[in-house]
Amino acid sequence: MLRLILYRLFYGLLTLFVVSLVVFAATQALPSDPAQAILGREAADPARLEALRRELNLDQPLALQYWSWLSGVLVLDFGTSLSGGMPVSELLGPRIQASLSLMLITAVIAAPIAMAIGAFAALRRDRRFDHSSSMVTLVLAAVPEFAVGIVAILLLSTGGLKLLPAVYAGSSTEVLSNPDQLVLPVLTLAIAVSPPIIRMMRASMIEVLESEYVQQARLKGLPERTVIWRHAAPNAIGPVAQVIALQLGWLAGGVVAIEFLFNFPGIGKALMDAIEARNLPVIQAVTLLIAAVYVLVNLVADVVGLAANPKVRVSSR
Amino acid sequence: MTGSEPMTGTAQAEGDGAAALRVEDLAVVGHPSNVRIISGVSLTLRRGHILGLVGESGSGKTTLGLSLLAHCKRGTEVADGAIEVSGTPLTGLDEARVRRLRGRAVAYIPQSPASALNPALRLRTQLIEALHEWDEQERGPRADRVREVLREVALPDDDAFLSRYPHQLSGGQQQRVAIAMAFAGYPDVIVMDEPTTGLDVTTQAHVLATIRSMTRDYGIAGVYISHDMAVVADLADDIAVMFKGEVVERGAAARVLAEPEHPYTRRLLRAVPLLRTEGHPEPGEPDAEPVLRISGLQAGYGRTTVLHDIELEVQRGECVALLGESGSGKTTLSRSVAGLHTQFSGEMLFDGAPLAHSSYRRTADQRRRVQYIFQNPYEALNPRKRVRDLILAPYTHLAGRPRDPDAVVANALERAALPAEYAARFPEQLSGGERQRVSIARAISTGPELLICDEITSALDVSVQAEIVELLRNLQDEGMALLFVTHNIALVSNIAQKVAVLNKGEIVEYGHVGEVMARPRHEYTRALIADTPDFELSLPDEARTADTQLPEAAGQ
Known about the structure:
heterodimer, A: 317 residues, mainly alpha, MetI-like fold, globular, B: alpha/beta, Rossmann fold, 20 strands
């Protein structure tokens, strides 16, 4: 099992390397010159432009530029922000924390609830709860997350009930001290990630409930509670773990729109601002970060999936 | 929980004579179509006796077996009748009370323990669960009872074994665990649903012996569901024959086997292949050149060698059976001959010319002359093609576009004993036996000289199996050579002239069927023959061949 994990880890790192290449190439293709962006109106002076470009190493060949960027990344030095001159890692630090808190809270709340709903729908198969939950999840899955967010704002904040603040007010370092401001973003993200988890859990649970070992457990005369929690659920979770991971991975990118909508000071918002300002080092760092979260979450899901399967767990001990 | 305890006690006090199981006029219907899956079934069974419940697939025997545990599959329910286990009616009980009876009044041994044991739970957990109504004060710790019952089924009882997961056991061990689980709670009735179907004959013999002795020792009434008359004849005290959801014949085993009353019972009995026959007469002196000659063949996967030093000859018009248990390498050998398995070394001559390893390297003519029939007819036919196209595709590919395609199809169907109008059907419109006939028609349409049959009857009911064997025998009379791969020793003497017994990748015995069956030289062959259940058929012999030609009654 340890070997399998190392193996996956290696492939995760390889993926990240490829992503770094793509990210670098993509930022190079952006139709702007960072030096010009920094100087703004003063860029009219070609001598100053040239000097700044040399300072930013923009005159060197691309391969060298990539290498110096990558070697910085390896020691967590993402370069200097083009606006303000702060080191990127320092700039993003608190924002990463804010975004991670948002994601983790969403995951901790959404995943168990979604699994419970899916399992319950499977147990109530073809009854009213099953039909209505499958209808609702289908609709929610089809609506884009920012639309869900806008509806949530309209219903709970500005429009109907004036319960919660519509947008986030405050800095990225005090996210957890304002829980009421977190409710709407978390709710929106939870609604966005849940439908596939619910549907997968339902399908997986139905398959397990139809299996012979569940029938055998019933024929042994076990209480239905034991049949479901001891015999069915552990076998149903394996495939769902993969879906949860994919959804959490999506969350890393999905926060961009939601943070923008709620003006939440996380990496998504930082990315939007950086794109607007052509702030290349920040764009590169955030995209790479999102990719890293994606790879990591999938690795964790693989490990959970393997751990849920005694065949793998025991044989490679 | 302890309130219902005396019930088991009273049942035991009533002694051997009392009926442990009584079923009266039971009917199970399916929803929403309201089809009667079983109807009008009545049975009684005493303690210490085993009832063999025989029937072919779709006869409702599993539905009946499950209803004895008050369990109905999704979309079915008991519509009528009564079931009594040791005097307690099972029908009409609420869920909690049914649950308490299960495992203690009536227990179940599943068909395939590989899928009926929970893959995610250790054996200890699953075995102790079976004792959910166990009174530890009175009868001692559950763990002790689990160890005791494991010893009784000849399994280890140490902690290391109990900590294992099902996938760490062999098929036979898994089935023993399932048996231990059923016997652990001293039930009054045990329902066994074909518990030996997936097992090798040797393992099957051990499992059957365990079941027999434990049922007697515990004084349990056993219901043994099976399609295999030979197994039931060996094991059961009473036999009930099911046909289309009804019990058509019921009585003492000896009587049913000796003087079957119902025509369907007679048909079932005649279809069972007999173990000891003299084999078939030799088709004259062997030709100078055999169709297939294999010498010094080694084959394997990666670095593992699964076949060692195979020597084999097949003459024209001769059937050579390749007999072996799972893992003996018999399928690897047949796939090597067909050019589907390429990792082998040694000499393989077809009609005097060497055969290339891969079928891609063989000439179209060689491929035409060697044809392969697969084990499972449900998977071997493309469900989107009509029978006509299924037969024509290989023909066109190997023998060229025929001038009269309809004649080719009609001829192939006729030789496989299928009506010509089947050409327009899709596979799903055919029964299992008919599908296998289509596979045969497809293989013989190109006029092969060697036909490789890989366990082609193992997925079929006994009566259908007998028809397929008859068909193959006729093909052989037309001069075709057969390589018949099987694990069923009883089939061998019904079809083959020669037999090669494979054990762990080596041919341990090779010779004429009559010779090998009567005087097996190798220890392994002797064990195989001894472990195969057999019964003497007392029906007149002339009816035997005539009746197997009847159209399939159950499959359609």
